[in-house]
Design a protein that fits this description.
Length: 198
């Protein structure tokens, strides 16, 4: 059976942590992408993780890159690119910076992995989810659809029907940083998933 291909765009704190968890749970092979200005950084983080695999006992492949070519045909793309909030900043302060970043990322994701599930983590999350949806051009937006189902993803019961939106802090954390991501990867191929929860 073909292994899932998971691309993580933004190899910073959240992206690298996400790669760590996804690899350690063998959710698929992983591509960690960042910008050309930090050439070597995503490759180095990926190599460090990959070289821990014999010790930790997982067999996911992990590579780093500063372009989208290695992401082609990804099943899941997790968007963690952007500027993180600094002391004194509100998440809304991030809008103008991260809108440009997420727009660029979403366009690239749509071009290279048109059938992927895309999970947006970048803040301010609700706004970035909207930006990603508009920029990608191939997504369905059903903000209520998965709200009641979100908690059930831990049991792997998220149906492989069409899509939903993952858009809340709680849902994103649940999906990207805990075992629920396995359910999403397994069930939501070809979907763009967001869940909007209170
Ligand atoms: N939704 C949540 O629950 C949640 C939780 C934590 C952080 N966040 C958000 O996630 C984002 C990342 O946080 P972090 O702590 O990892 O920040 P970070 O600064 O450690 O990492 C961000 C990375 O994105 C990269 N990047 C910038 N522009 C890019 C582009 N166009 N393409 C690819 N990569 C690009 C940067 O070079 C950097 O390595 C922030 O917006 C933060 O607010 C969301």
């Amino acid at each position: 059976m073909r292994r899932a291909k998971i691309s993580i765009i933004g190899a910073g704190n959240v992206g690298a942590t996400c790669a760590h968890w996804a690899a350690s749970k063998e959710l698929g092979d992983i591509v960690l992408v960042d910008i050309p200005q930090v050439e070597g950084m995503p490759q180095g983080k990926a190599l460090d993780l990959f070289e821990s695999s014999p010790v930790e006992g997982f067999d996911s492949k992990i590579i780093g890159a500063t372009n989208y070519e290695p992401t082609v045909g990804s099943d899941v793309v997790i968007v963690t690119a952007g500027v993180a909030r600094k002391p004194g900043m509100s998440r809304d302060d991030l809008i103008s910076i991260n809108t440009k970043i997420v727009k660029d990322v979403a366009e690239n994701v749509a071009r290279h992995s048109p059938n992927a599930v895309m999970i947006v983590v970048s803040n301010p999350l609700d706004a970035m989810v909207y930006v990603a949806w508009k920029a990608s051009g191939f997504l369905s937006y059903h903000p209520d659809r998965c709200c009641s189902r979100a908690p059930s993803t831990a049991g792997g019961s998220l149906p492989p029907s069409d899509v939903s939106l993952l858009g809340s802090q709680i849902s994103i954390r649940a999906v990207s940083l805990r075992s629920e991501v396995a359910a999403v990867c397994a069930w939501c191929r070809h979907l763009f998933v967001f869940v909007r929860c209170a």
